[in-house]
Design brief:
Helix content of chain B: 25-40%
Shape of chain A: extended
Mean pLDDT of chain B: 88
Low-confidence stretches of chain B: none
Strand order of the largest sheet of chain A: 1-2
Mean pLDDT of chain A: 88
Number of domains of chain A: 2
Radius of gyration of chain B: 25 Å
Largest sheet of chain B: 6 strands, mixed
CATH class of one domain in chain B: Alpha Beta
Number of helices of chain B: 20
Radius of gyration of chain A: 26 Å
Distance between the termini of chain A: 17 Å
Shape of chain B: globular
Order of helices and strands of chain A: HHHEEHHHHHEEH
Number of strands of chain A: 4
Structural class of chain B: alpha/beta
Largest sheet of chain A: 2 strands, antiparallel
Distance between the termini of chain B: 47 Å
Structural class of chain A: mainly alpha
Low-confidence stretches of chain A: none
Oligomer: heterodimer
CATH topology of one domain in chain B: Rossmann fold
């Protein structure tokens, strides 16, 4: 009864890296299409119709990437037309579209990944690797915005005292650089207090543990196993060249054998997993509400 | 039971000729609430830090600190970390991590406690402190008071036996400070936690503490229950100036029975010793100049488009040459109003006039040239250089023109100065632009009583030189002593305005301790000096004559 994003971060991360890993290490067009469609679908299911600007940016980038390849690479047999004494070929165009689908698909996945992986989940992930690394990350996450806020405060204070004599860019830059230099002092000075506070609370007395904010539930384990299984089948298909394609000199796509077909189906299923989970949760809620 | 004993402790910082702590001996009994006070630089912080091994500064130490029968240096790391808790002054800088729950867990994580156990302990602590609601929040979103409570809670999860606090409320507003102190009292009462706390805002803590230790120049000059301590220090106005109003009044009138500490005790002290045939002074009506130095007319401001109005139709006038104090709770928009007056924020509707000219018409930052300047709340933001001398040279400040003397501070780094000294150095920098209107945001925050008195006299001498001063403050005592007019800020506008006498005798809650003490017995008495004066006029009730106080 959890949304996909509420599953254990390790499971979610494994799923994300499986999906994007396959997309990045293979160039089979059907897999690319599945990845791209799945990524867009996943993003819109999570966000609805907002984020119009991001969509626009991604699709403009898609067009640029797809069209850049045939203009630069002139390999391929089938010449579509000649531009500035250079042939523009069908193969290069298709290759461009295929790689653009891969890149944009992965970009969409990572956009969703950053939405789901809040700082807390990242800390949990890094904490599983090393508690110390996780602490450093946590301190950085606190400190970076703090630094920004303090320099804004200093800047305001200096403005209200007349540090900036004139309203021009050079004076602004001079003022800003002075503010930056004092920010370094400030950071060191305050770092001492933070260090004292850490020391007083026993930092460095022994081996650190880390508070686990997320537990492993049965559902997490099931999802993890399913993810790894589907990934295994897909990877086997990709790795044994059951799913391969050559673009140059002419397009040579092998008809997939049984392993290839099951690879495609597994990848499709892998990408549908979160959507299935989300839909199931929604339906369950609806059902529960109707029985109340 | 004795939990901590300090025997002949002497401490000298490296390269210093005179010791910072000089032959100090005292002991703390288990369950005692002890307050340590003394002027800035008297060695309070050094003493407290030598009681916590991890924070003991470098230097020559002689003498012994014994904690639970063992010498401090002989304790093992875990005991010394967990059993002695330490909370420092600055709420923001003590926080290590970005999430509230992680901050609470930090100490226990360091001790290698198991995850389940950590969860249990921080859950318990969060419930006790009512942190549950903001358990998942970013630490950056918390208010100063919440941050300090979090610091306290994240020390207490380690279950200390002794809690040391070094001026924990100095950076908090009075309401948050009272809340914090009430929490300490509760911890002391409910769990018998031994507490030693350095503090210079004594109004709230002295009445609830068991013992008052007073330090001067590295030595203890008093160590006894608070009313006895005040009694022995009766002839030391420089130390008494931070004490509760009732005690100061008692000392001024040289009372003889036990010293009153709270408003209630102060009231009964006055009523049982002095008559009230003369109930108040004749009041001169307040005369102000006709020109307005700063005027707000129906000003509206909000930070975000969808947010609420922080300034909600704010209108007021500040006449030139007066000290105008704006009081009000946290988040009522006081600081926002000040920033709007300084042109840092732009109101979306309404008009702000500075010296008869619209704020918008000050082009090219001419507003900040010989016209208006603001001293921000966090004075550290004023400094940009490595020494005070460079700071003053940078902005062309002339020492001889200042109404106070800071020549002894010139070669120090601005961050190394005490709170009061920082305030004066920052003010010197602000005054360099020769402003006609001076905006001060919480000028007495974090200052000890002596520095506060100094600040008040600086403000008064600036006023004599013709400056108009607008100050935002939580400090009702400051407003009562030095303001010409006070205004109460609430919900984005000013709801009441008047001279301190009218203002404080009308309000019931937001008023000075003296006003609460004398309400209904005398009229319009709001400061200790006034109260002492009227008591003398009325004379002692007893059959023997009061000693002559001239």
């Amino acid at each position: 009864m959890r949304k996909f994003s509420e599953y254990n971060p390790i499971v979610v991360a494994v799923w994300f890296f499986s999906v994007t890993g396959v997309a990045m290490f293979c160039n089979y067009p059907i897999l690319m299409a599945i990845s791209l469609v799945g990524a867009v679908l996943f993003f819109t299911v999570r966000n609805g119709l907002s984020h119009g600007r991001e969509h626009l940016f991604f699709w403009v980038l898609f067009a640029v990437l797809a069209l850049a390849n045939p203009l630069i690479s002139h390999n391929g047999k089938t010449v579509l037309f000649v531009m500035n004494h250079n042939p523009v070929t069908l193969e290069a165009l298709l290759y461009g579209v295929n790689s653009a689908a891969m890149i944009i698909g992965v970009l969409y996945w990572f956009r969703s990944f950053t939405q789901i992986m809040t700082s807390e989940k990242l800390l949990y992930l890094t904490g599983a690797l090393s508690p110390k690394l996780s602490l450093v990350l946590s301190m950085a996450l606190r400190f970076v915005p703090l630094f920004g806020r303090q320099s804004e405060k200093i800047n305001n204070a200096q403005t209200a005292m007349g540090l900036y004599k004139d309203d021009n860019i050079i004076d602004d830059i001079k003022g800003r650089s002075r503010v930056f230099s004092v920010m370094v002092t400030w950071a060191l000075e305050n770092g001492i207090i933070t260090a004292d506070s850490m020391e007083a609370r026993g930092f460095g007395t022994g081996r650190r543990t880390q508070l686990r904010h997320f537990g492993f539930r049965a559902g997490d384990i099931v999802l993890l196993i399913v993810t790894l299984l589907l990934l295994g089948v897909t990877a086997a298909a990709v790795g044994t060249d059951s799913l391969s394609i050559d673009f140059y000199p002419e397009i040579n796509i092998k008809a997939p054998d049984i392993l290839g077909i099951s690879g495609i189906l597994s990848y499709g299923a892998l990408i549908l997993l979160p959507l299935i989970i989300e839909t199931e949760v929604r339906l369950k809620w609806k059902y529960l509400r109707s029985t109340i | 039971m004795e939990i901590l004993a300090v025997n002949d402790l002497t401490f000298t910082y490296p390269l210093c000729s005179s010791p910072a702590l000089n032959n100090i001996s005292f002991h703390l009994n288990s369950g005692e609430f002890t307050v340590l006070c003394g002027a800035t630089g008297s060695g309070k912080s050094t003493l407290l830090r030598t009681l916590k091994r991890e924070l003991t500064p470098l230097g020559d130490v002689s003498g012994k600190v014994i904690f639970c029968g063992k010498e401090l240096s002989a304790l093992d790391g875990r005991t010394s970390t967990a059993s002695i808790g330490f909370v420092m002054q600055r709420p923001e800088q003590q926080i290590v991590t970005d999430k509230v729950w992680h901050e609470l867990a930090f100490g226990l994580e360091n001790l290698g406690v198991k995850s389940d156990e950590i969860y249990r302990r921080i859950a318990e602590m969060a419930s006790y402190f009512g942190i549950g609601d903001w358990f998942d929040r970013d630490t950056a979103e918390l208010s100063g008071g919440q941050k300090q409570l979090l610091n306290l809670a994240s020390v207490l999860v380690m279950q200390p036996q002794l809690l040391i606090l070094d001026e924990p409320t100095a950076q908090l507003d009075p309401i948050a400070a009272a809340d914090f102190i009430a929490t300490l009292k509760r911890l002391n009462q409910d769990f018998g936690l031994t507490i030693i706390m350095a503090e210079h805002r004594l109004e709230d803590v002295v009445p609830i503490c068991d013992r008052l230790i007073v330090m001067e120049n590295g030595s203890l000059i008093a160590d006894s229950p608070p009313s006895d301590a005040v009694n022995t220090l009766k002839s030391r106005p420089d130390i008494l100036c931070g004490m509760p109003a009732a005690s100061r009044l008692y000392a001024k009138l040289s009372g003889s029975e036990s010293c009153p500490l709270t408003v209630r005790e102060g009231r009964s002290f006055i009523e049982s010793n002095y008559g009230n045939t003369t109930r108040g002074f004749a009041q001169a009506s307040y005369v102000h100049s006709d020109t307005a130095a700063l005027e707000f007319r129906d000003v509206y401001f909000r930070y975000t488009r969808d947010g609420r109005d922080i300034l909600d139709g704010l209108s007021f006038k500040v006449y030139s040459g007066e000290i105008f104090c704006i009081l009000g709770g946290n988040g009522s928009g006081k600081t926002t109003a000040l920033s709007a007056a300084a042109g840092l924020l732009r109101a979306y509707s309404g008009r702000i006039t500075v010296l008869g000219k619209k704020l918008k018409d000050y082009k090219n930052r001419s507003l900040y040239r010989e016209c208006l300047a603001m001293l921000p709340q966090d004075v550290q933001t004023v400094f940009l250089k490595n020494t005070v001398r460079e700071e003053l040279e940078e902005c062309g400040a002339e020492l001889s023109k200042l109404p106070y003397d800071i020549s002894h501070l010139l070669d120090k780094h601005p961050y190394d100065l005490s709170g009061g000294e920082q305030q004066l150095a920052a003010l010197a920098k602000v005054l360099a632009a020769k402003p006609k209107i001076l905006l001060l945001d919480e000028p007495t925050k974090g200052l000890d009583a002596a520095a506060k008195l100094n600040m008040i006299s600086v403000m008064q001498s600036l006023k004599e030189k013709g400056a108009t001063i607008v100050t935002v403050t939580h400090d009702v005592e400051l407003a009562a002593v030095c303001a010409d007019r006070c205004a109460m800020f609430f919900g984005g506008k000013i709801v009441s305005i008047g001279t301190p006498k009218e203002f404080f005798s009308q309000s019931n809650f937001y008023t000075t301790a003296v006003s609460r003490m004398t309400r209904g017995y005398f009229d319009n008495i709001i400061t200790v000096d006034d109260a002492a004066e009227i008591c003398r006029i009325n004379g002692r009730k007893e059959f023997y004559d009061a000693p002559d106080k001239k």
